[in-house]
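Dear support,

Our group has been running a series of protein-ligand predictions, and this particular one with adenosine-5'-triphosphate is the one our PI (initials K.S.) wants archived with full inputs and outputs. We had some confusion internally about which version of the output was final, so please treat the block below as the authoritative record. The input we submitted was:
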Amino acid sequence: MSEIYVVVSGKGGVGKSSMTALLGRAFAQRGKKALLIDCDIGLRSLDIILDVQDKVLFSWGDIVEELCDPEQAAVQQEGLYLLAAPARLPRDFGPAELRGLAGDCAEKFGCDYVFIDAGAGIADNAMLAMGAADKALIVSTPDNVCVRSVAAAADKLFELGMDPENVRLIINRFDKKSAISGKMLNVDDVIDSTGVQLIGAVPDDEAIELCLHRGMSLPKSSEAFKAAARIAGRIDGEEIKLRIK
Ligand SMILES: Nc1ncnc2c1ncn2[C@@H]1O[C@H](COP(=O)(O)OP(=O)(O)OP(=O)(O)O)[C@@H](O)[C@H]1O
Ligand SMILES: [Mg+2]
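Confirmed final output from the archive:
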């Protein structure tokens, strides 16, 4: 059975969708299959980030409403599958139903991992996504406002019954020079303030804007891709030392 992760943050615009896309591609590179589920209902973006928007004919809402099969809704790209978010939530649909859908689709497509890209914040869409997952990756940028929101997201996950052992932190847009000069928090500050164990830091990398958002694969030599590949390795059970660049 595949593991279901939610990629969540307290604050919007910190890189959840970018991380979800990078992880999908990093797992493909490892020869593993990931199912990416966009749960930003009404504001989907993963299809654009992966440059498959022209291939999206149906959303996962259409599977739920029996308007199509999972095979018709899922867009395949290299080793990953994407289910686009619907414009509105299907009726009587909650975390248990999303979990069922994720599990069924992952089994059908032979996926090892599911990553649900939660919407911004910790209400509605994010609660749906958090309640459907076994494990969580909380994304934070290294600033005080975001760090505070991470603690709130972690509390929600614990309230929903998630084991703290299954919750990990990704620090995104980390810049060592800014941390050293005090313009940004350093990694220890972020970990101490959030109380969540770190699984990796992804550097601020303009290649993300240039490539990912134009649907091009990030060069494997880019620092952001290398960082995502290390996080994928850790998720996959490999012992990879934390390297903060
Ligand atoms: N490591 C990074 N380096 C440079 N730019 C980044 C990085 N991560 C994300 N970005 C940029 O930050 C912006 C927000 O990213 P993204 O859409 O992934 O955030 P999000 O958390 O999914 O947003 P939302 O809460 O609106 O869903 C995008 O323009 C993206 O290109
Ligand atoms: Mg997003």
